[in-house]
Amino acid sequence: xxxxxxxxxxxxxxxxxxxxxxxxxxxxxxxxxxxxxxxxxxxxxxxxxxxxxxxxxxxxxxxxxxxxxxxxxxxxxxxxxxxxxxxxxxxxxxxxxxxxxxxxxxxxxxxxxxxxxxxxxxxxxxxxxxxxxxxxxxxxxxxxxxxxxxxxxxxxxxxxxxxxxxxxxxxxxxxxxxxxxxxxxxxxxxxxxxxxxxxxxxxxxxxxxxxxxxxxxxxxxxxxxxxxxxxxxxxxxxxxxxxxxxxxxxxxxxxxxxxxxxxxxxxxxxxxxxxxxxxxxxxxxxxxxxxxxxxxxxxxxxxxxxxxxxxxxxxxxxxxxxxxxxxxxxxxxxxxxxxxxxxxxxxxxxxxxxxxxxxxxxxxxxxxxxxxxxxxxxxxxxxxxxxxxxxxxxxxxxxxxxxxxxxxxxxxxxxxxxxxxxxxxxxxxxxxxxxxxxxxxxxxxxxxxxxxxxxxxxxxxxxxxxxxxxxxxxxxxxxxxxxxxxxxxxxxxxxxxxxxxxxxxxxxxxxxxxxxxxxxxxxxxxxxxxxxxxxxxxxxxxxxxxxxxxxxxxxxxxxxxxxxxxxxxxxxxxxxxxxxxxxxxxxxxxxxxxxxxxxxxxxxxxxxxxxxxxxxxxxxxxxxxxxxxxxxxxxxxxxxxxxxxxxxxxxxxxxxxxxxxxxxxxxxxxxxxxxxxxxxxxxxxxxxxxxxxxxxxxxxxxxxxxxxxxxxxxxxxxxxxxxxxxxxxxxxxxxxxxxxxxxxxxxxxxxxxxxxxxxxxxxxxxxxxxxxxxxxxxxxxxxxxxxxxxxxxxxxxxxxxxxxxxxxxxxxxxxxxxxxxxxxxxxxxxxxxxxxxxxxxxxxxxxxxxxxxxxxxxxxxxxxxxxxxxxxxxxxxxxxxxxxxxxxxxxxxxxxxxxxxxxxxxxxxxxxxxxxxxxxxxxxxxxxxxxxxxxxxxxxxxxxxxxxxxxxxxxxxxxxxxxxxxxxxxxxxxxxxxxx
Length: 980
Ligand code: ATP
Ligand code: MG
Description:
By secondary structure, the chain is α/β, with parallel strands linked by helices. Among the domains are: about 1-135 and about 940-980, Rossmann fold; about 180-210 and about 780-820; about 405-570, Alpha-Beta Plaits, CATH 3.30.70. The protein is flat.
């Protein structure tokens, strides 16, 4: 087997697709530093599965993709294919050629692997080359770095090479897999054992429960076979007995219906009879009533007859007919007079009564009018009284100046003894009512200032106050006071201002002589309508003037505001005005009262008159009442006398005609006839009733007997029905039990179960079996199934456990076997290499000795490899102390020793001999030649000695900057190229 060619495209500096052909033997690759030689060995390493980015001299896998140069764009994918010749089937793959490809895309870092252009996994590639000696730790690719680090590396790090040479790598891999498998098996075993242990705990109690359940089922089965038979038998017996009962009930019912019919009929007859008797009784009663009336009638008529006879005799003896007629006529005249008189008196009586009522109404009206008038006068008097009081107060205020201070009052009192006192300012001013509030506000305290003619007068007055200790006062001497006014420009402003009414002094009337005082006090006070305007106007005139409103609010000089209400301080002006008004009111009220009093007087006179008339009327009314009563009784007497006379006259004419007598006799005869008829009828009906009574007695007897019989039948039926209900309940209980307990129908049970049983014994057996079942206590029927399930599961798991234990054993055995193979192969190979190492060493160093040793001879499987070397003429020394060239030689010795023992099909050596001297390069080259029959060498070199041994030479260049190009060269060109 050998590497036939490498195809690179986009891998590192191989931007363009490059194909490098190889042959068996030695191929040399030469070229200046940095032209991409080592990239070739990187490419081979990469395709063979290298995953370490560091080994590929990058920091990212995508670093292997050509990443552009000065005039080339980067590639997006790197692809390298190795083509091996496999005619000798060295590789375990049945093709003459094996192509292994690896691709990497920059965009998503996605890798692709192919064998003979078929996609595959990385693992497939690793498996394919596993036994060929091209593996990771093999000697197939050795770089400059590998060589120099060989001597310095740790013993353990060197071991890999030897393992690869001994061919134990695959055992190691398999052992690892086995150990993992062993761990998994162990885990499974632990898990299965846990479950088994748990199941073992459940099994014993479940078994006990299961056995109990089985006993229970057995007993239950026995019970069922007996009890079902018993039930069937019971049901059968009950059904028969019920049939009998039903039959007997049916016949009883028929009998009962017949008797009931009979009774009903007899009762109806009885009813009819009773009705007849009742009707008869009613009739007899009626007839007896009629009889009684008839008898009374007879008696009465007989008495009447006697009376009439007696009366007739008396009347005929005592009455004179003509005299009677004369008395009747006389009496009629008297009666007529009495009627007339009575009617006349009654009319008068009514009239008087009406007049009396009119007078009473008039009296009432007069009384209420007087009362209202008195009330009215009283109210007026009260108002008048109040007004007079108020007048006193006002007089006090206005005329006695009581509202003024003590000082002012003192001066005004002594006014006449002082000179030049004109008056109090407030009293001297007058204004229309609507301005009084504003004026009072404008004046404020000045209301009480006293106006004098001169200041001399004022001083004297003050002196007077002091002398007499009579308080204080302020004086305004006319002579001295200077008029004040608004500045012209301010006046202009005011006149154009909304709400401006004028200067306060324009709204007052006063005596001419005090003008200077008035203008001094009011000439510069402005009057406006509202406080809002007052504020605005004050601002417009720079708050130089006092501004007052109609409601008495003030914006003072300087801008402060005063307002609100002042309840007691009514101004002097108002008081004066009120005093005048109240005086007028008092006069008009006094007039009104007088007027009303006169009216009251009139009414009083009228009242007296009405009372007088009324008294007279009442007296005549009382008299008339008596008269009417007398007249009424006179009338009645006359009337009854007249009636008795007319009555006697009628009687007399009847007696004379004899009509009365005949009629009475006829009536009497008729009455007697009726009485006899009634007596007969009553007798007949009594007899009929007697016969009904007899009939009724017979019927009652029959009814009593029928009813007694009916009661007997009913009680027998009740008894039977109770029995029937009892048996039916029992029957349904038995059927229910069959259904509930044994889930069978009666028909089914009857078919399936024998009825050849002794009931007594069977019932006893049932009792015994039930007792046994009860004494079992709680039974878990599920236990049978559960036990089955758990024990089956346990068995399955137990056999799994045994399988796992077996598996574990066999894995352990396999591992042991592998260990043995590895130990023996490793040891064998190690010994061989050791021997060859000494030989190659001596050869390369021209003498001395070298030996490989286990760093841990007791643990061949893991031991590291130590190297003891002694070049000729030198003592054995620590390997790290050797020169670079010596170290390279030692490493190369080892490499060749391994190649001798275990040849590899292909080996790439990247400047491994760089540090050797010319003589050693030659020896190195000779060794290559020696091995080249069995190993294909691809050698990156700068050394002429090596180049000379090469069968084929490639020169690597970078004609285009950053892009490697390989061309076949002759030795001479190669030497030039290496030197360049
Ligand atoms: P030496 O003789 O010094 O060992 P060499 O010929 O072995 O030199 P390599 O190490 O193979 O040189 O190549 C190094 C060159 O490859 C560098 O110039 C580097 O810029 C270039 N190279 C490495 N990776 C990339 C990449 N991904 N894209 C482009 N160029 C790359
Ligand atoms: Mg290099």
